[in-house]
């Protein structure tokens, strides 16, 4: 079988095709949801759901508080994996790669596009730290609402985008009897991609 008939030779182009289908599918309310996995400070894998907020030829962008658990993990081990599964389409994509910080300009643009209360929340929440009560968080929100009253909410220096620069990408399609189709791309030293079919 000629694999190029099925998939593009560039996995990011292929991802954009599948992601576009997911965006257009009314059965998928949040196609941008992805599971992000990092290595924590004790060496254990650690996963959580975040949102894919950008994709280009360089890789996949999400935004986070760098002082959070995942932020500290990425500062120590700047590698990550992401998984996206669109069940109605029967598609799954897995990505592994290095993680680099996006430019301040990119982070500023995205932060400015967020709802104002989400911007306030980025200041008010000391993400991942112990919280004594819900009231403590709500009081913090009120303080920052007052601080930024009548002016734009600036992006905190600790809140910025991270880009997963892929080294491996696996595309999976659902098939009966668990005889699924799996295709693995791996980046070569010269920047091109190899593509093989895997057993399900």
Care to give the gist of this entry?
With 200 residues, this protein is an alpha+beta fold. The protein has 6 helices and 9 strands. Strands 1, 2, 3, 4, 5, 6, 7, 8 and 9 form a 9-stranded antiparallel beta sheet that branches.
Mean pLDDT: 95
Q: Indicate the radius of gyration in whole angstroms.
A: 19 Å
Task: Give the topology string: H per helix, E per strand.
Answer: HHEEEEHEEHHHEEE
Q: Measure the end-to-end span.
A: 16 Å
How many structural domains does the protein architecture include?
1
Helix % is 25-40%
Largest sheet: 9 strands, antiparallel
Our count of helices gives 6
Q: Strand content of the residues, in percent?
A: 35-45%
- Spatial shape: elongated
Name the CATH superfamily assignment.
Electron Transport, Fmn-binding Protein, Chain A
Class by SSE composition: alpha+beta
Which spans have pLDDT < 50 for at least 5 consecutive residues?
none
CATH architecture: Roll
Description:
The structure is a single chain. The protein is built from 6 helices and 9 strands. Strands 1, 2, 3, 4, 5, 6, 7, 8 and 9 form a 9-stranded antiparallel beta sheet that branches. The protein has one domain (3-114, 157-198): Pnp Oxidase, Chain A. A hairpin with a 7-residue loop joins strand 7 (159-173) and strand 8. The protein has helices at 3-6, 11-24, 69-76, 104-113, 116-124, 134-147, and strands at 33-39, 45-51, 54-56, 59-65, 79-86, 91-101, 159-173, 181-187, 193-198. Helix 5 (116-124) packs across helix 6. The longest helix is centred in the first third of the chain and has 14 residues, at 11-24.
């Amino acid at each position: 079988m000629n694999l190029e008939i099925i998939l593009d030779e560039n996995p990011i182009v292929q991802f954009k095709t599948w992601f576009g289908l997911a965006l257009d599918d009314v059965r998928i309310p949040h196609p941008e949801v992805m599971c992000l996995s990092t290595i924590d400070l004790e060496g254990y894998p650690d996963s959580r759901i975040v949102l894919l907020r950008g994709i280009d030829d360089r890789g996949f962008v999400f935004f986070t508080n760098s002082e959070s658990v995942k932020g500290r993990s990425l500062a120590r081990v700047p590698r990550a994996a992401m998984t996206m599964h669109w069940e109605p389409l029967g598609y799954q994509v897995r990505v592994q790669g290095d993680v680099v910080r996006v430019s301040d300009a990119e982070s500023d643009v995205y932060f400015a596009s967020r709802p104002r209360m989400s911007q306030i929340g980025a200041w008010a929440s000391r993400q991942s730290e112990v919280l004594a009560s819900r009231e403590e968080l709500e009081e913090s929100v009120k303080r920052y609402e007052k601080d930024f009253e009548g002016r734009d909410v600036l992006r905190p220096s600790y809140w910025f985008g991270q880009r997963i620069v892929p080294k491996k990408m696996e595309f999976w399609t659902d098939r009966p009897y668990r005889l699924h189709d799996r295709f693995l791309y791996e980046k070569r030293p010269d920047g091109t991609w190899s593509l093989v079919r895997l057993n399900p």
